Amino acid sequence: MSQVSSASAPADHTASAPLRLARHRQFLVTLLGVYPVITLILYVILPLTRGWQIWQTTLIVAPLMVAIMVFWLIPLIQKRFGRFIMRPAR
Prior knowledge:
The structure is a single chain. By secondary structure, this protein is mainly alpha-helical. The chain has helices at 23-48, 54-85; strands at 19-21, 86-88.
């Protein structure tokens, strides 16, 4: 019969509480990041697409904005503001 020593698996009483996403904070930080990016994209794209239907312009703008968000903006927000947008779970 084997016994498990309590020293082999010590309990970590210093571990922090689990964190949960504070969506309103994430919303605020994301909005502050998205607004200047989408404004810049529109300043560049709209003169090039003058006379196009709105859906055609959006077809160019949307993939560009999503790519910027996925590959640059969201990782930047998580890195720089991760502690701000996370809160202890209840």
